[in-house]
Design brief:
Strand content: 25-35%
Largest sheet: 8 strands, antiparallel
Number of domains: 2
Order of helices and strands: EHEHEEHHEEEEEEEEEEEEEHH
Bound molecules: nickel (II) ion
CATH architecture of the largest domain: Sandwich
Helix content: 25-40%
Structural class: alpha+beta
Shape: globular
CATH superfamily of the largest domain: q2cbj1_9rhob like domain
């Protein structure tokens, strides 16, 4: 499932993060690419222990924690500490690739299986030309370029790329979620059920049917979730 998660960051948080990243020490992104990805990757990243990255990461993790749509869609078990990349100038693209299956976070020593990939846009679309995230989804190819502070999630199994940035800079945060529900199909069913329950409650309040179906949601989650 590919999903746009609007307004992950408040305008204040976005401002603080952009200010912190503006003066940060960007490095060649190929340092952290695997064998296949290194051929395709031409961007810049911040080192995981960069102070600006650490500051921004905390704000993003807090923001994700309170976002109901992010929770419902990803059912996070573990979240890889968000990282930061920048595309522009000579390092402006990342060709077709699939993200590695297991990510090792040096800062926490934790391994995170990548079930869901996430890009959180930190630059507005009018600040750069190109730079679309192109994801080959089961429904076809989708090209995304979202407002700053908005995120997109998509299955980590998808082939995806970032189109060349021909003007300005595209700055984003990226990370992976190991979901409590490993199967994309099961996660999608739970998400659809949850969203329709929200609508049912809005239209009819906490009816007997809504209470019963909420029970069904939790019983499915209980059957499928690993914590
Ligand atoms: Ni990727």
């Amino acid at each position: 499932m590919l999903l746009h998660i609007p307004e992950v960051l408040s305008p204040e948080e976005l401002g603080q993060i952009r200010q912190a990243l503006a003066g940060a020490a960007w490095q060649d992104g190929r340092r952290t690419a695997g064998n296949q990805a290194v051929q395709a990757k031409q961007n810049e990243q911040l080192a995981p222990d960069d102070p600006a990255a650490q500051f921004a990461r905390q704000l993003i993790l807090q923001a994700l924690d309170r976002h109901p749509l992010f929770f419902s869609a990803t059912l996070p078990g573990r979240i890889f500490p968000p990282q930061f990349n920048r595309y522009g100038g000579q390092t402006n693209t990342y060709g077709d690739h699939v993200d590695g299956a297991v990510m090792h976070a040096a800062s926490t020593g934790q391994r995170v299986r990548s079930d869901v990939s996430c890009t959180l846009f930190l630059a507005d679309p009018d600040e750069y030309e190109g730079g679309e995230l192109v994801v080959n989804d089961t429904y076809g190819r989708q090209a995304l370029k979202l407002p700053a502070g908005h995120a997109v999630i998509y299955p980590s199994t998808s082939v995806h790329r970032v189109e060349p940035v021909t003007r300005g800079h595209r700055v984003a945060s990226f990370f992976w979620v190991q979901s409590m529900v490993r199967s994309d199909e099961q996660r999608r069913l739970l998400f659809d059920l949850d969203m329709n329950l929200v609508r049912l409650r809005q239209e009819h309040g906490d009816s007997t049917a809504a209470v019963g179906l909420t029970g069904t949601y939790h019983n499915l989650l209980r059957m499928w979730a690993e914590t």
